[in-house]
Design goal:
This protein folds into two domains: 2-68 and 93-121; 128-269, Immunoglobulin-like (Sandwich), CATH 2.60.40.420. Helices cover 42% and strands 19% of the residues. It has helices at residues 2-27, 36-69, 84-87, 89-121, 127-130, 255-269; strands spanning 133-140, 143-147, 165-168, 173-179, 194-198, 203-207, 213-217, 223-224, 232-235, 247-253. Strands 3, 5, 6, 8, 9 and 10 form a six-stranded mixed beta sheet that branches. The chain has a four-stranded mixed beta sheet with strand order 2-1-4-7, with no helix packed on it. The longest helix is centred in the N-terminal third of the chain and has 34 residues, at 36-69. The model has no long low-confidence stretch (mean pLDDT 87).
Length: 273
């Protein structure tokens, strides 16, 4: 009777838990996702939540059930029931096989499948990436500097003189990442490690002195730092006393607006207004 009662309660609570998780996923309160990689990460997280809910409920319910059902008051000396778990080979075998199956599932999906998708996104020869906007990103203490070599822009700034990253929605972007200080004449290897992190994109890439790293990403949503502070470039590697303020606003706009912004930046660079 204990097994039957436990099983019924577990199934009922699992169904309720799954319904609750799906409501959370549908309303999407946990994420603000605005890139192809971010969507991939979000889908992986949603899959793990759905699969792990009944497992979590099973483990938690086992602890609570055992504390209530087999509670012994002080002074009692009850006759202990047969050790079901230890003597039942079917139960032990099912537990071991189930644990292996769950771990294999998570290895194949989302780990291996997502890795394959990520490698495909990073392929420079793909048609989408061959048309990518190239942005050189320079990290220095404590500033992000963005240049657009395709458009002849050495540094892009907003109206307040702050470095700004602006991109067209739905178009692949190739970021070329470096860590050094272009405003001072010293060995570029002397700088420190920074980390290129955009929360709404679900990416984080370390920027290391002496190395040039690249990453491809496609913005999927019109967004801006003013609309949502998750749309920003933030350093996620402690790099000195100015680290908390090493950030830059990000705007993702339409193709037409991006072309107007490029022209505005060219006029700004050439001293025109």
């Amino acid at each position: 009777m204990d097994v039957v009662g436990f099983g019924i309660l577990w199934v009922v609570l699992s169904i309720l838990g799954e319904l609750g998780v799906r409501v959370i996923i549908h309303n999407d309160p946990l994420y603000y996702t605005a890139s192809n990689i971010g969507l991939m990460v979000e889908n992986a997280m949603d899959f793990l939540l759905v699969v792990l809910v009944p497992i979590f409920i099973f483990v938690g319910l086992t602890l609570i059930w055992s504390m209530i059902r087999f509670r012994v008051k002080r002074g009692e000396n009850p006759i202990l029931p047969e050790k079901f778990v230890r003597n039942n080979k079917w139960f032990v075998g099912s537990w071991v096989i189930g644990s292996i199956a769950i771990n294999l599932l998570f290895f194949l999906h989302p780990t291996a499948s997502a890795t394959e998708q990520f490698f495909a996104m990073e392929n420079p020869q793909s048609p989408q990436n061959q048309q990518a906007v190239i942005v050189d990103v320079t990290a220095r203490q404590w500033e992000w500097i963005f240049s657009y070599p395709q458009y002849g822009l050495k540094e892009t700034l907003n109206a307040n003189g702050q470095d700004q990253l602006e991109l067209p929605v739905g178009r692949s972007v190739k970021f070329v990442l470096r860590s050094y200080d272009p405003y001072h004449t010293y060995d570029q290897y002397v700088d420190v490690i920074h980390s290129f992190w955009v929360p709404s994109w679900g990416i984080k890439e370390d920027v290391i002195p002496g190395e040039i790293r690249s990453i491809y990403i496609t913005p999927t949503k019109l967004t801006s730092f003013a609309q949502n502070p998750m749309s920003r470039v933030q350093c996620a590697e402690v790099c000195g006393p100015g680290h908390p303020w090493m950030e830059a606003p990000l705007n993702v706009v339409s193709t037409g607006q991006f072309q107007k912004w490029i022209q505005y930046q060219k006029n700004l660079q050439n001293g025109l207004s």
